[in-house]
Amino acid sequence: MAVPAGGLLHNASDISIVAPTASRTDRHRGNVSQTQEERKAQTRALLLAAAADLFAEQGIDAVSVDEVAEAAGRTSGAVYAHFGSKQGLLLALLDSWKDSVLTLLLAEVAVTDSPSGQLAAVWENLVDTSDDRSGRWSLLEHELWLRAARDPEVADVVRVRNAEARRYSARQLDGWAASVGARPVAAPEESAVLVKSLLTGLAMQRRLEPEVVTDELAIRGLAALLGLRRSPVAAGPSASRALPDEPPTPEIPTRHPTKEPHHEH
Fold this sequence. Notes:
By secondary structure, the protein is an all-alpha fold. The protein has two domains: 24-85, Homeodomain-like (Arc Repressor Mutant, subunit A, Orthogonal Bundle), CATH 1.10.10; 101-226, Tetracycline Repressor, domain 2 (Orthogonal Bundle). Helices cover 58% and strands 0% of the residues.
């Protein structure tokens, strides 16, 4: 059975702020007022996008308000006008970056009707480094996690964001598993946690040791976690082995009690 259009999860992680539609009251103010609102929205979006790029490239603590403003083609006053402070900018970035890593990772699974091919697409979407921006979001995710681990205010925002994304992801994973006959190793919400953890952990290790984390290994791990027994489509040159239909069960030798030697008296 094919997965519904849009794949397991939707992709809404693009940082963009759409200018609000003008109401009847706003129309009476004329085109100048509408243009001002549009410019404000554009400035906000540019500042958020610049902050996302710089935070991912250099780390949150290494980036100044002035650097964000310069990268966005705006003044530092614009940053303070929109966000109040660097911390306000970070919290706004978190608010706009609503979807978790898992939401973004599973955005491309609709490229094929094959469940195994969909898992391969998930992994390829994660580790694609064909351009500078393709892997930047994962670096930003790690930066946000590190900041949240040290800053209770940021941690509160991250926990709310993750909980919302986890619930949505769980519903989508549950529907996907039912449609393809997969048998995940855990309940839907737990599966969402495990899949995100597996993929982000493997991606982090792959950045440093690409020869260790092969495409084939990552896809086999994901298939095992989601209870998909069919062999996944090879993703990339390193995916050379097929996933076995049934993992071999290791033989556990039976231990027999050792007889005590008999001594004649």
